[in-house]
């Protein structure tokens, strides 16, 4: 049998002590009255023991579980695509001309690549870590394709 | 202490690409993440979506986690930011989603007593209704401190503000909720009516 809870202690209690207090107050009308008398808003502390539906928790695990093995490579591809688009647009605007038709390779430093990804507000994180990025322009006719690769890219 | 060591081992393994360790980490933390997200978004399905995003992000950035820091604080920070961003993009709801009605879907189970369960259900609806009157950071501060039970200093780290700012958010949040309870619920929400109900102590 748990002793009555001092409402002033409820807000400051932590961990297992707090859980015990909250559980007690949830089942003790006298303690709930005491909490309400002290500060009715503190009654919302009882929501700490409201369990979440198992279905929702399982859906979280299910949605997350299959991805770990594949998410990083996929992310790199997505990042490369975003960066490629940016590099293309940047080059197009800067030079004021269409990219050359022939494939070519350009070396650029990684912070520039990270900055480009950041400017794109892409849902990827690029961590500058040194090294160089290789930008390969594969544009043919109206189809504009630029690939960026850097082995040190940390996404 | 043993739990902390287990968690550190789990995080280290997951950060190294161990899929099973990551899945176990998700199982351990998912309820906490969903609950915090739910209290901020006000919708359990939205909370699930936020939680999924949080764990997917966690997988990507876990290797950057500093093991000398408190993992839960870091996780709450990601969760709260994601939930606030979610609400900002979604926009305010004009009508709160009712909680699922059947027993298997109820957010609250009948613990510790049936009477308490009824009160918890009412309490949850009241909070979701009144919390829409709070600013996002006020709501997050209240959820973290008064529902999740974090210390003020930890709430400050999660929200990226000073402790005095947290205290200010909490004062404002409690005042607004108190006034809401008084105006919308007659100020006697959950109070015993008459002397027929006794203490369960």
Question: Can you describe what's shown?
Answer:
The complex is a heterodimer of chains A (155) and B (201). By secondary structure, chain A is mainly alpha-helical. Chain A has helices at residues 7-10, 15-27, 29-38, 54-64, 68-95, 110-119; strands spanning 104-109, 132-137, 146-149. A three-stranded antiparallel sheet of chain A has the order 1-2-3. In chain A, helix 2 (15-27) packs across helix 3 (29-38). The two termini of chain A are 53 Å apart. Chain B has helices at 2-15, 19-41, 44-61, 71-90, 114-131, 136-147, 152-159, 163-185. In chain B, helix 3 packs across helix 4. Chain B starts with a helix and ends in a 16-residue tail after the last helix. Classes of the chains: A mainly alpha (155), B mainly alpha (201).
Number of strands of chain A: 3
**SS-based class of chain A:** mainly alpha
Percent of residues of chain A in helical segments? 40-55%
Order of helices and strands of chain A: HHHHHEHEE
- Overall 3D shape of chain B: globular
Q: Mean of residue pLDDT of chain B?
A: 83
The fraction of residues in strands of chain A falls at 5-15%
Mean pLDDT of chain A: 69
Gyration radius from CA atoms of chain A, angstroms: 28 Å
Strand order of the largest sheet of chain A: 1-2-3
Q: For this entry, what is the oligomeric state of its chains?
A: heterodimer
The biggest sheet of chain B amounts to: none
Q: Uncertain segments of chain A of ≥5 residues (pLDDT<50)?
A: 98-111, 116-122
State the helix count of chain B: 8
Brief characterization of the structure:
By secondary structure, chain A is mostly helical. Chain A contains six helices and three strands, in the order H-H-H-H-H-E-H-E-E.
List its traits.
heterodimer, A: 155 residues, mainly alpha, 3-stranded antiparallel β-sheet, 6 helices, 3 strands, rod-shaped, B: 201 residues, disordered C terminus
């Amino acid at each position: 049998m748990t002793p009555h809870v001092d409402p002033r202690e409820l807000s400051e209690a932590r961990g297992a002590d707090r859980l015990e207090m909250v559980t007690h107050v949830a089942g003790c009308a006298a303690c709930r009255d005491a909490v309400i008398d002290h500060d009715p808003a503190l009654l919302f502390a009882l929501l700490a023991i409201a369990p979440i539906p198992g279905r929702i928790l399982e859906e979280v695990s299910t949605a997350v579980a299959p991805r770990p093995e594949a998410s990083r490579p996929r992310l790199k591809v997505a990042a490369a695509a975003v960066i490629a688009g940016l590099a293309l647009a940047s080059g197009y605007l800067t030079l004021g001309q269409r990219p050359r038709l022939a494939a070519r390779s350009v070396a650029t430093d990684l912070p520039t690549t990270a900055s480009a990804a950041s400017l794109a507000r892409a849902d990827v994180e690029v961590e500058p870590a040194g090294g160089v990025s290789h930008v390969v322009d594969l544009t043919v006719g109206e189809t504009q394709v630029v690939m960026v690769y850097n082995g040190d890219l940390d996404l | 202490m043993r739990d902390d060591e287990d968690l550190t081992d789990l995080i280290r393994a997951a950060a190294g690409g161990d899929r099973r360790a990551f899945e176990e980490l998700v199982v351990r933390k998912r309820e906490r993440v969903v609950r915090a997200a739910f209290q901020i978004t006000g919708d359990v399905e939205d909370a699930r979506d936020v939680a999924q995003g949080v764990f997917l992000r966690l997988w990507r950035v876990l290797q950057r986690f500093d093991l000398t820091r408190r993992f839960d604080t870091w996780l709450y920070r990601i969760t709260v930011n994601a939930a606030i961003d979610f609400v900002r993009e979604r926009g305010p709801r004009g009508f709160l989603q009712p909680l699922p009605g059947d027993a298997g879907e109820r957010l609250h189970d009948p613990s510790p007593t049936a009477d308490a369960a009824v009160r918890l259900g009412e309490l949850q609806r009241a909070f979701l209704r009144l919390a829409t009157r709070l600013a996002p950071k006020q709501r997050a501060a209240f959820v973290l401190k008064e529902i999740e039970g974090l210390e003020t200093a930890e709430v400050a780290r999660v929200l990226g503000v000073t402790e005095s700012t947290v205290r200010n958010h909490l004062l404002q949040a409690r005042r607004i909720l108190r006034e809401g309870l008084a105006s919308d619920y007659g100020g006697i929400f959950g109070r015993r009516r008459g002397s027929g109900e006794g203490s369960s102590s």
